[in-house]
Amino acid sequence: MTATAEEREIIADWQPRHAALFGHERLKLNHRLRETGLFSRSALGRLIEQCPPEELGLESMCHETDKPDRIQGELGGSSGEDAIRAIEKGRMWMNVRRIMDWSPEYRALLDQVFDEFERRMPGFSTFKRNIGVLISSPNAKVYYHADIQGQSLWQIEGQKSVFLYPRSSVFMDDRNIEKILLRETDEDLPYELWYDDYADEIVLKPGEMITWPLYAPHRVQNHDCLNISVTMEHWTREIRNAYAVHYGNGVMRRTLGIKNASTRDRGLHVYPKAASALLWKRLGRQTSGDVVKQRHFRIDADAPEGLVTYA
Ligand SMILES: [Fe+2]
């Protein structure tokens, strides 16, 4: 039996109202990424093995604080599937980055997903699309932060809670957005426990994806199981304009001491075209992979915590 066009869509439960909500409100949808066959353990194992070392982020979490302690690791001689097993028993994060740059199959999938969104949302036009895979240990956390581009999170295996906070200056003021955009902070923001009284907890299960408003603060907590998730990023003109305005205001605050810069993101009143072009070039550089000079451990599924540290 051949699948109907609707059955081939990646988003399984799209409704017309979602077009108005996308990017502006939190939106949880059902997806069919797993049915592509690209996210089985064996397919992901091959993907990990193909990943250029500079795009394979691997960090272990600090025992004392639970925070990623910026200890960087490498695959060593481990196979991709063994690496997944090691993460399942350990306290690690693996980030397979910029897959569209080095795997045509996944690039085609990324295009398919955004073609589908663009077909369903007239006027929604994206560029600088990005796809990555996050494989993280049971109970791993991502701390309170915000992202600079449009972002969606697609669950493949395991369960996690995504805590989404209101997009208001109480939870993150413009100065903190500027800090993120100017790369003065590692995207962690001031966080108070009482913020959680105002957060929505969304449990993400395999086959579900979520998006949220631009710059909305969030944090993520894995449940007690291995988590495999796909992250997709995108830019639209609207997102780029918001970036440029906040960025421009951040520069003005720092160089001219202007206190009440406007954050209206329509029109080009804040930055001249030439400055915008320069900024865009800079942004292109910012999104490339991290340069890791030293690796501190190698992954090992047979080791007690799934890794062997180098002396
Ligand atoms: Fe995020």
Automatic annotation (TrEMBL):
Gene3D superfamilies: Cupin
Family annotation (PROSITE patterns): JMJC
Superkingdom field: Bacteria
Ranges for domain JmjC: 92-249
Organism: Pararhizobium mangrovi
InterPro entries tied to this protein: JmjC_dom (IPR003347)
SUPFAM superfamilies: Clavaminate synthase-like
Name of the featured protein: JmjC domain-containing protein
